[in-house]
Amino acid sequence: MSSSFLTSPFGVDLRPGAPPMLRAEAAGGALSWAAEHRERLRAVVAEHGSVLVRGLGLRDAAEAGAVFQRLANGLMAEKEAFASRRTYADGVYSSSKWPPNQPMCMHHELSYTLEFPGLMLFACLSAPTEGGATGVADSATVLDALPPALVDRFEREGWLLTRSYNDEIGASFAEAFGTEDRGAVESYCRANAIGFEWQPDGGLRTRQHRSAVVRHPVTGRRCWFNQIAFLNEWTMAPEVREYLVDVYGADGLPFNTRFGGGDPIGEDIVQLLNAVYDANTGREPWQAGDLMLVDNVRTAHSREAYAGQREVLVAMADAVRLADCSPTVEVSAR
After folding, report:
1. Which of 128-137, 164-173, 179-188, 279-288 has the lowest mean pLDDT?
2. Which of 60, 156, 162, 238 has the highest CB neighbour number within 10 Å of its CB?
3. Residue 191 CB: number of other CB atoms within 10 A?
4. Is the full-model pTM beyond 0.90?
């Protein structure tokens, strides 16, 4: 056996306030190790929702991408991105371009799409000098910790995502949809239950209605699965929100979320959601060479503010259809 975790009587290192961790001894190289222990790793993710592998010594994008390919059941191309990324190879991306001093709060990747990743893979090539951890939180635990009345409302109504694409803030519509062809964008929106409206300045506004609570496609467990807090105006830093409202107007924010019936989500609710996430977050500072796997339905993830150079590569894999997760509301383009 070439990996210490397989021979350790303790197996996965489970520490309060930290993600599950495995320590690998990959003398034969990261790709060989990944091939040998693929099923064991995936079993750990199925059991715990995520795992941080330390000791692989991932060195560059090519090696990280090869490991991603080996561990996944198929990498996905990102669609409907909320922020731009650098593409290293098919299905291998940089982290979303987001100001280092602004945290990215807990969310489930592409939870507003009709087909989203079941598995997220992360590889740290360069660790920041301070902060920058990718936190994780169990979505079923978060759901149980939320006020029942609030959960009931979101189960009945779902949530509404509104987006205003422009060339200045966040991803442009060309980056999000992979084309500048308006006809192709419109066809995609119609096929994916997204309402759309072209603006006089050439921008695009969209609306989509989705479930806030789903059932895990394998276990059937109810999960709080959405980006209600992350993409809400009240999660933004106050000065950023004030600037964007001043420039684009309250209805022209790059993204915002509402209750599924259209009512605004108040600052108090967003603070509550983020507080529950924070109380249930596991975090571990990145080290160069680390690998992390996250079950995207069972486990939310975040990115903390940081200082220094941080290079974390991302892959989205193992596509899951919303229709296979027992959505509580019918998707629509409200």
Report:
1. 164-173
2. 162
3. 9
4. yes
Cα 77 to the center of its chain, rounded Å: 14
Map tokens 């390919």 to a residue: 69
- Cβ atoms of 325 and 217 closer than 8 Å: yes
Structure tokens, 114? 């009709």
Cα angle at 194 between 112 and 160, to 5 degrees? 50
Q: What is the pLDDT of residues 159-217, one digit of tens each?
A: 999 999 977 777 889 999 999 999 999 999 999 999 999 999 889 999 999 999 999 99
pLDDT mean across residues, the chain: 93
Closest CA to 332 of 205, 228, 192: 192
Strand duo 311-321 + 104-107: pairing: unpaired
Q: Cβ-count burial of 39 within 10 angstroms (0-12 exposed, 13-18 middle, 19+ buried)?
A: exposed
Q: Rank 10-19, 147-156, 165-174, 248-257 by mean pLDDT and report only the highest.
A: 147-156
Q: DSSP assignment of 92-132, as one string? A: EEEPP---TTS-EEEE-TTTTSSEEEEEEEEEEEE--SEE-
The dihedral over CA atoms of 283, 109, 326, 38, expressed in degrees to the nearest 10, equals -70
pLDDT of 7: 35
HEC letters along 31-74: HHHHHHHHHHHHHHHHHHCEEEEECCCCCCHHHHHHHHHHHCCC
Residue-by-residue DSSP string for 261-283: TSPBPPHHHHHHHHHHHHHTEE-
Check: CB of residue 118 under 8 Å from CB of residue 320. yes
